[in-house]
Design a protein that fits this description.
Layout (H helix, E strand, L loop, with lengths): L11 E8 L2 H11 L3 H4 L4 H5 L7 H15 L11 E7 L8 E13 L6 E11 L5 E12 L7
Antiparallel strand pairs: 1-3, 2-5, 3-4, 4-5
Length: 150
């Protein structure tokens, strides 16, 4: 089990990859982002962008799953106060294999609750061609071990 002390500045977590299918892209879009280029690769809008593309929000959801599988479910996570920025840098297409990393950029004990550590991350996601598809910055909160609290 990871604790706050394991999230040292400079540590990089390589997250498990995910290959996205056209079916899951369309299913997500039907429910949450029904723009034509997310629903039908033959639509006029999709033709303008070279075919079916994933919703950026779907890409973000995939990143969240990668984070969970990569370290979050093996930690005493206390949630997150949010993201500082989200950038979708390139389109995601059916059968792209997405890889990602999480780099710790800052780490400190909470001033209001010394049992909690606050960790800042930069998340990067890229496809099988090495093209960056997403970058985001966020903060996570984790229980600290008893020795850290003061």
């Amino acid at each position: 089990m990871l604790t706050f002390e394991d999230f040292t500045v400079g540590r990089v977590f390589e997250l498990p990859p995910h290959t996205i299918t056209a079916e899951e892209m369309i299913e997500f879009a039907q429910e949450f982002d029904p723009q034509p280029f997310h629903l039908d690769g033959n639509s006029e809008q999709a033709k303008q962008v070279g075919g079916l593309i994933a919703s950026g929000w779907h890409t973000s959801s995939i990143l969240m799953r990668m984070i969970c599988d990569g370290y979050l479910l093996n930690s005493p996570s206390q949630g997150s106060p949010g993201l500082e920025e989200v950038r979708w840098l390139n389109v995601v297409r059916p059968q792209d294999t997405l890889s990602a990393s999480a780099e710790v950029t800052a780490s400190r004990i909470s001033k209001s609750n010394p049992a909690i550590g606050i960790v800042s991350f930069v998340y990067k996601m890229w496809n099988q061609r090495g093209e960056d598809v997403m970058r985001t910055k966020g903060v996570g909160m984790f229980k600290a071990s008893a020795g850290t609290q003061s």
